[in-house]
């Protein structure tokens, strides 16, 4: 993964984690001793953020928590191992840095900061997200579970993660992906699944949760903001187990992508219109329905218009009534019962 440990600092601080500047040394040391520092302290030393020695506190984004010296040492040595054939000079530098971090590691650290740093990590920026995903991909040996919201998958989205998928396939890792029903109509996704063969199993639902990626049921990635430029890397066993349970329950409800969608049982009503009808019955606006089903607002309104025409509704209010009458509101109703009369209780022979 691309984790700038040496020789990739900012323009004002052209150094790596193996040879911090004096100001960076002071701020990082203080962060290790105290467990965290205000974000303003890192202003004069952007190298600490650039080198990922400090990262946002998941509970308070105005504070920064340090990457543990032990983790820094591990990544330093990994980088040295990869480059040792190209430059023997870097080995001595890394060894010196290792000893420096080891000295910091012997200092007492708040338990909460250590536990939090390993359990929840804020990834700020697409480059850091991609680097963390690449690292998790390299470590994965068994299974990847993903939830992919939205509609038809764009070629750029599929190409972005193709190198990871191919690497996983090469190691025999199994993958299970959840999409919305709309994604079935994208040729790009069909081409991707054909390329991956039996390695990937895909299923679809009317709507799914926000993006989720799980590696080997030990590490999970979820979005941390609406535009997905920040993410959370989760390694806390309880959190990961919870997300795995959510995925497995959705998976049991989903329909294999290779199987046709079930018939609605109502002439003229498609499966997608049935889904829209259920969400309309819940009181959702067009834009919300479109987002949840992974379609455009324009397409959503076209389906609503066709639904109104099929059910003979002249207004939205009347459409709501007709949806309930047709049983499209998603509510389970008890089977009708009929009171037994005296003749009803008689045997068939008596009748």
TrEMBL record:
Q: Which residues form the HTH luxR-type domain?
A: 262-327
Q: Where is this region: Disordered?
A: 332-351
Q: Which InterPro entries match?
A: Sig_transdc_resp-reg_C-effctor (IPR016032), TrmB-like (IPR051797), Tscrpt_reg_LuxR_C (IPR000792), WH-like_DNA-bd_sf (IPR036388)
Q: Where are the transmembrane segments?
A: none
> Which GO biological process annotations does it have?
regulation of DNA-templated transcription
Q: Name one Pfam family in it.
A: GerE
User: What is an example of a GO molecular function annotated in this UniProt entry?
Assistant: DNA binding
Q: Which residues form a coiled coil?
A: none
What Gene3D superfamilies does the annotation carry?
Answer: Winged helix-like DNA-binding domain superfamily/Winged helix DNA-binding domain
PANTHER family given for it? HTH-TYPE TRANSCRIPTIONAL REGULATOR TRMBL2 (PTHR34293)
Name of this protein: LuxR family transcriptional regulator
Q: Which organism is it from?
A: Streptomyces dangxiongensis
């Amino acid at each position: 993964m691309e984790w700038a440990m040496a020789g990739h600092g900012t323009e004002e601080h052209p150094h790596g984690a193996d040879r911090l500047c004096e100001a960076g040394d002071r701020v990082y040391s203080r962060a290790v001793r105290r467990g965290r520092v205000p974000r303003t302290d890192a202003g004069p030393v952007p190298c600490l953020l650039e080198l990922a020695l400090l990262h946002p506190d998941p509970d308070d984004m105005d504070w920064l928590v340090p990457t543990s010296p032990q983790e820094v040492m591990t990544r330093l040595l990994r980088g040295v191992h990869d480059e040792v054939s190209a430059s023997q000079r870097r080995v001595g530098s890394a060894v010196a840095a290792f000893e420096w971090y080891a000295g910091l590691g012997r200092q007492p650290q708040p338990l909460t900061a250590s536990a939090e740093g390993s359990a929840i990590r804020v990834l700020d920026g697409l480059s850091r997200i991609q680097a963390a995903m690449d690292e998790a991909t390299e470590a994965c040996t068994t299974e990847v579970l993903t939830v992919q919201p939205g509609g038809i998958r764009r070629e750029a989205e599929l190409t972005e993660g193709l190198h990871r998928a191919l690497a996983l396939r090469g190691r025999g890792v199994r993958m299970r992906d959840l999409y919305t029903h709309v994604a079935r109509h994208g040729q790009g996704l069909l081409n991707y699944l054909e390329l991956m063969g039996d390695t990937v199993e895909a299923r679809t639902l009317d709507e799914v949760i926000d993006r989720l990626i799980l590696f080997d049921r030990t590490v999970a990635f979820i979005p941390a903001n609406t535009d997905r430029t920040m993410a959370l890397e989760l390694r806390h066993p309880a959190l990961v187990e919870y997300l795995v349970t959510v995925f497995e329950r959705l998976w049991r409800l989903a329909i294999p992508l290779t199987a046709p969608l079930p018939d609605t049982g109502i002439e003229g009503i498609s499966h997608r219109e049935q889904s829209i009808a259920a969400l309309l019955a819940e009181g959702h606006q067009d834009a919300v329905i479109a987002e949840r089903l992974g379609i455009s607002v324009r397409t959503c309104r076209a389906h609503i218009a066709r639904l109104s025409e099929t059910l003979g509704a002249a207004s939205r209010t009347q459409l709501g009534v007709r949806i309930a009458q047709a049983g499209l509101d998603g509510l389970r109703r008890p089977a009708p019962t009929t009171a037994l009369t005296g003749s009803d209780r008689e045997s068939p022979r008596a009748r």
